[in-house]
Here is the input.
Amino acid sequence: MDKKHEDKLEVEIREHSDADFFPDECPSCGCKEINRKTYKIRIIQDLGTPTICRRIRYEKVTFICTNCNTTFSITHPLIPPRTSFMPGVIKYATLRILKEGDSIRRVTKDLNELHNVEVSVSEVKLWVDKVGKRGDLNVDFSNEDPPEDFSGFISIDGTFKAATTKKNALKTGKHQEKRK
Ligand SMILES: [Zn+2]
Here is the structure.
C-alpha cells in the first residue's frame, strides 16, 4: 500500500435529497401531479475520523402542484432542520460532556482535531445548554461532584433520559437502559 495515502485526508460525502421522498400528492388539493420547483443545497457536518472528513450534501427541494400551483416542502427523516451538524455529532458531544464529564473545551478540540468537525466552543456550549436544559454548566466540572440539583438530560432517540456524571455512571448505567 502506498504510504502517501495514510496521511491523506479523505473526504466522504453522502448525498440526501428530498426527492428521495417524493410527495404522493399535493397537501392542498390532493392532486397527484407534483413537480420540483426549486432546490437549495445544504452542507451538513458529520462525525469523521482523524483521516476521514464526513459531510452530508443535502438537497432541500421545493415542490409545486401542477393543478393548484401550491408550493410546499417536506421534512426529510434524516436531516434536522436549521443546523449544520448531524444529530450524531451533537449526541456524541453532549454524551461526553454530560455523561462522561469531559470538558466542553476538550470535546470541542477533539471534534476539530480528531473528528474533522469544524465547530466552536460556544456552539458546543449551546448544544449542552439545550440538551442539558441548563444554562449554567461549568465549562469543566470533570473533577467535581455533581451538584445536588443536577438536572442534565440527554435526548436519546426522542426520549429523555437522565444524564449521569462520570462518578455516577458505573452505579446508574444499568438503570438508563430500562427507562423509556
Ligand atoms: Zn394542488
About this structure: The helical segments are 4-7, 87-99, 104-114, 121-132, 166-178. The CA atoms of residues 100 and 166 lie 5 Å apart.
